[in-house]
Design goal:
Length: 329
Amino acid sequence: MNTRNKIGVLLLNLGGPERLEDVRPFLFNLFSDRQIIRLGPKFLQKTIARIIAHRRAPKSMANYERIGGGSPIRKKTEEQAGALEQVLRQDGDFIVRPCMRYWHPLADAALKEMEQAQVKEIIALPLYPHYSIATTGSSLSDLHRTKARLRMDFPIREIHSWPVEPAYIACLAERIRDGIQSFQGEPVQVVYSAHSLPVQFIQEGDPYVEHLKQSIRAIEECTGIEGRLCYQSRSGPVEWLGPALPEVIAALAAEGCANMLVMPISFVSDHVETLFEIDIQYRDMAEGLGIRFASTRGLNADPQFIAGLRELVLTSLRSEIRERAATKL
């Protein structure tokens, strides 16, 4: 495929504070999103969000300080964008940029850069393989609201989910095999850790859990190794998806498990959930209970993973071509 028009690709991601002084405003942005959490009546959302951000900032700042003083997610996403733009050069004229939901570069800046580049259309590619209203849904809604506010007229094509994208699955399977080998032939329990969500989202039809299970089935078909699914990063008083990773670690210790390999299945780049929660907090817990602990390396800008993102972009364009052809019949 070789496109004639200039096409923009936005890699949608959560974003994260790059410095300790960014933590509080980042948390405020997060808790101000009424689409994923409703804090009292609508007119009080931002007031309550500001209070929560103020209370949570010190603990969050301490966590970020343990991984170098800020989140690397912007840098990692920029590396992914640069690598994807490079491989797409064989397919046409593309510009690829990050677009974050709760920290910079936000949709406003990302869309303005696309307009300045004179793109004819945008493909919104979420770096969330598994769809949820709290991640992909919120990012896409914000993107369309921003586009309307800026009165831009180029179309935005959406990629909603890709839980069994072949290159993505191949990358994860490879990391499982590499992780297993590090235990030198000893029995290992594989644990898949995903970001938790309020149970209510799933009850209302969110496909997130089913998408996770699709990915795990595909990985296990490649590796022949079964694992357990659990969740991390809970916050707030609502009922969250479980079991939580700490609960699984405790259960494995009670069962006499000697070795565990954790794969952060819903994360495609290194950030605080992998670098602090998994590699520091939960590693310390597991080792304190006598379990030898390892985690799989992040996907980041792995060439095979980037090739999978390229295929998602090209598949979206092929679908557009078929749709246009069908309207002419």
